[in-house]
Specification:
Number of strands of chain B: 8
Number of strands of chain A: 16
Largest sheet of chain A: 8 strands, mixed
Distance between the termini of chain B: 35 Å
Radius of gyration of chain B: 21 Å
Distance between the termini of chain A: 104 Å
Largest interface: A-B, 23 and 24 residues
Strand content of chain A: 15-25%
Structural class of chain A: alpha+beta
Order of helices and strands of chain A: HHEEHHEEHEEHHHEEEEEEEEHHEEHH
Helix content of chain B: 25-40%
Strand content of chain B: 15-25%
Oligomer: heterodimer
Radius of gyration of chain A: 30 Å
Shape of chain B: globular
Structural class of chain B: alpha/beta
Strand order of the largest sheet of chain A: 5-4-3-6-2-1-7-8
Chain lengths: ~450, ~325
Amino acid sequence: MSKKTIFAKPTKNLFIEMLIRDISLNDSISDLIDNCVDGAIRLQKEDSSKKKEKIEDFSGLHVSININGDKFEIKDNCGGIASDLARKYAFRFGRPKDMPSIKYSLGQFGIGMKRALFKMGALFEIRSTWKRSKFKVTIDLREWEKDEENWNFSFDELQEKKTGEADFPKKMRGTEIIVKNLNPDVKNRFNQEKFISQLIEEIELEHLNNLNKGLRIKINGNKLKTNKLMLLDSDVFKTAHWKRTYKKYGEINTEIYAGISRELSEEGGWYIFCNERLILGPDKSITTGWGIRTPVRIPKYHIQFSRFRGYIFFTAGDASLLPWNTSKNNVDIDSPIYRSVQQEMAKLHRSVIDFLNKVHSENVAYENEKISERKLEKAMKSATLKPYNEVATSDSFVGPKVTEIKKSNEVFIRYKKPKNKVEKLQKLLEVSSAKEVGEKTFDTVYNMEFEG
Amino acid sequence: MISSYEKIDYRVRPAKSIERKMLCDAFRKLTCFKNVKQYQYIGMGSIYFSDFYITHKMLGIKNMISIEKDAHRKDRFEFNRPYQCIKIEYGLSNEILPKIELNKPTILWLDYDRPLKIEMITDISTFVSSTVSGSVLVVTIDAQPNNIVENTGENYIDNLKRRFDELLKRIGRSRMPPSVSYKDMTRDRLPKVYRRIIDNVIKELLSDKNSMIEDKDKINYKQLFNFIYSDGAQMFTLGGIIYAERDKKIVKKCNFNSLEFIRTAESSCKIVVPKITYREKNSLDKIMPLITQSSKSNEEQLNFLSQKERNEYSKIYRYFPSFVEAEL
């Protein structure tokens, strides 16, 4: 290096710090599960008597996670990582252009595994058995950090089958990752039961579709439950539905469902899925249209809308086309596909809001004794919850028709006055409430001025 | 809040009636896309339904919807409805417009009687986002600066600033173009501000929509109408045609530019109605169309009319409303 050379190489220390900064602990664990899912997809493809483009069945595959104050462990039987993949791509930081891609995968930024490991601790053991290879890699991060020049790792153990040799039996195939020397803050959190139960809840939601396809996930022995995205259905309701395939930059399929479900405010809002992985939801913010003024007016989220459910699915063979951020915990609001689709989302959204507003008006009218029965409430109570893809649909939400509740021609007058004065008038006017004082004084003046 | 139809008798607004006829002439040109009588017309008829009269009579449009916010007096609107093919939808335009089927060629005339507010931007965006190639949007807004907010007794600059603040409050900071200031809240400049705000909304919406679409299907907006007039308060009308890139040739074929009042940019077509008598009008007609600007024909005895008045008349003589003046 001549005197003219200026050093600009990143330090490993900064690199690690920056890498782990933009992701939460939960999301990094979710990332590792994404890798298992990608492995599962790869496995089904290899086993390909399956002609189908998209994999719909993960039965028989499982992921087991064990977390405590001393270590983090994730084990799966999703086919394992080929040694060549490990050698050339899996441990690279970033995704080399020539890496073979899996269609409909979840991993596309090339950092998921490394980032997750660095987030958690400093000593890693990775074992993986694939059809034709078996390897073990041990990484001592503190040692690795010391050598600024060498960014490579090395296999501790490596076995690669030669042509003619039999495959490794299916039972052996899979991956195991152990993280030790946990970072102190991580150690703390892993010791808390609350962390575990929250993690379970989050993963159940994020991997909802994969769980429904038969993937079994266990965290500290707890089997994760399958939930389905449900919507109310009956012969008087039609869920709003829209779908479109964009081909301009590569094929992206989008599908939107907007309808109603149970009256549980925590569940109300929009759910956004990219390649079947939930990245955001239930969202009640302007990101998904609450409070917008264009292209239609949508009010801000309110408990009145707790029955609202919006499900939007983005699916693409090339995962880089999808509108997600690198942490996969939010939608990229600047992405052209999301901006395009937002206009359609808003229209479907509006049609459900219209219905929920009618429900609200009905409730108010019922409370004010203007009507004696609540037809819409009844219709919802007699509807059944069904998985979203089994409900009747239309291009905008349809609910039962009701007779128009006449909008009141009256306005509220509200004001405060000193208690003693009000009581004096109550006596004078011979009424028993402050409300009646207001009404009578209004009528008296009005009659004097306009009808006297 | 008093509805504007209770204050003004729309029928005697001469400039507005001229604008209506001009727009009708323009709508006729849409037949290059599809026979204009098959278009859907959506408007805000109030009790007079003037725009519905003309579009049905002159263009033969049968699919008509009037949006009416005053739901208390349905019987009065039903009574005044001129033709059975007009459907009146009661409710706020923000609520009604998203429910109307907009994916067919439509002429939408949002004839608001108030200064610009956010709900108008919502309506414009609902239409632009959902409509198809060949549709036309027309928006009429009150552009009288002191109608934005009442003038206080204070000085002129303070009034300008109050108007600016009020407008900002109504549409939101993100929709106010950065170079606009209180100095633009004057009679001359306010319509230009309104135009920029609306143009930006349309542009952004179409840009988002078009980002994922093949080039030939991309949607464009071409301004055609930019009218300013005062029958009382100053009014501003902005509008244009929405068309897909592949229909560019059809728009050309429509040949809107052959109409003298078409404006495609910031400069407005000012509709000025000279105050002349019916007798004067008849005499003036004899020398129409004006061959040279300053000609004085032998027949004409109207020396008391200025050249300005004569020119004003010549610009709109074909559309001049025929009111009858009677001495009682």
